Amino acid sequence: MAAALAATLADGGWRAKARPSQLPPDGDWLGWLLLAGRGFGKTFTGAGYIGELVETGAAGRIALVAATAADARDIMVEGQSGLLRMAPPWNRPIYEPSKRRLTWLNGAIATTFSSEEADRLRGPEHDACWADELAAWNDPQGAWDMLQFGLRLGKHPRWVATTTPRPIKLVKDLLARDGRDVVVTRGSTFDNEANLAATFLASVRDRYAGTRLGRQELDAEMLTDVAGALWQLEWLDRDRAAKAPELKRIVVAIDPAVSNHEGSDETGIIVAGITADKHAYVLEDLSGRYAPHEWAAKAIGAYRRHKADRIIAEINNGGAMVEGTIRAVDPLASYKSVHASRGKVVRAEPIAAMYEQRKVHHVGGFATLEDQMCSFTSDFDRGRAGYSPDRVDALVWALTELSGPVHTSSRTELWL
């Protein structure tokens, strides 16, 4: 142990290797937002800072939150710059993957969490946390809220968030707190040239320098809009409502997922209504990753709570199973199946036009839905394989129904 400690002291440790922009800021802050490009050394920074908190005894119960459970394991813990590799030999934690836990010699414990399972953060208490790639989280606002409720141990609990910028509402909100209780550090990929392969640097400079993608992913610019997006956050904020007026019709729209496991799509569940003067109001977003009986119960609960006129469900993937699942919960619910005959963009464009015309209002804020809307581009159907904007799909079905689709008995075909 003495030899290992001596070797660490001779090496200088994390602070000796870090650049000034990778060191925690001075001052009495609550959160440190490190907004930097790919290859800047964000993981190195996060792991080094958490290691220092453990070594100095400043933190003993730590939350490690990543976009997915695999990311928490492969990047934050086992990665090239993760906690295990960054730890000095004399203070290397014991990692128990089955328990999602690292334990240090002084008794400090860090537990890994996935943004896809925000409810796992409901209950555990922490005195520090590291949130990695915050802008890529599955449910950024929901997971962040649960994380903040648990950050209540010790005299001065703190968080550090390391992420490449994307214009999601949560990141914008944190940036707005800069200079109050949040300190923002910005950095570029090229700040870390000494530790990156020359071939990589030459390649990304040649291909991405000056491009929109390069400005975001390399220079870490926060681009406030997404090129080609059908919706703009400015529209949503401009026409947001504190409460809905008297509504003529209310519907609950469902875009069911075909599976329920880590990494599967969400089930979109949106409640919306319309007034006599044809202004639509989005009332609730109940979307999430659910088993069939769970999403059916969520939808029926909303149907009853809002005294809705109808449940609308897309049946492209579920067929008769979708209606059967709904009927199992409430056999008497007014139900209509809808079938998508064209691509998502074609279906979404008329609804986006309603927003642009100031005919749609969100009652309160729906951060995850709105982030998905403002990232949904006109070239979606030509790419983004494996990604499904389930909340947007449900929203489009709800507002299409309210604004007057073509009715054919209990089924709607959307021929656009």
Query: What's the CATH C level of the largest domain?
Result: Alpha Beta
The CATH topology label of the largest domain is: Rossmann fold
Strand order across the largest sheet:
3-4-5-2-6-7-1-8
Main pleated-sheet profile: 8 strands, mixed
Shape: globular
| Helical proportion, percent range | 25-40%
Radius of gyration: 24 Å
Strand portion: 15-25%
Number of strands: 15
CATH level-4 homologous superfamily of the largest domain: P-loop containing nucleotide triphosphate hydrolases
Unreliable stretches (pLDDT < 50, length at least 5) are: 382-387, 405-416
Name the average pLDDT.
87
SSE arrangement, N to C = HHEHEHHEEEEHEHEHHHEEEHEHEHEHHE
Tally of domains: 2
Protein architecture, described:
With 416 residues, this protein is an alpha/beta fold. It contains 15 helices and 15 strands. 40% of the residues are buried. The termini are far apart. It folds into two domains: 2-217, Rossmann fold; 233-414, Nucleotidyltransferase, domain 5 (2-Layer Sandwich). It is globular and about 70 Å long. The protein has helices at residues 2-11, 13-17, 42-55, 69-77, 83-86, 140-150, 169-176, 198-208, 212-217, 233-238, 292-305, 320-329, 344-356, 367-374, 390-403; strands spanning 31-36, 61-66, 94-96, 101-103, 109-114, 128-132, 158-163, 182-187, 249-255, 268-274, 280-285, 310-314, 335-340, 360-362, 411-414. 34% of the residues lie in helices and 19% in strands. Helix 6 (140-150) links the parallel strand 6 (128-132) and strand 7. The chain has an eight-stranded mixed beta sheet with strand order 3-4-5-2-6-7-1-8.
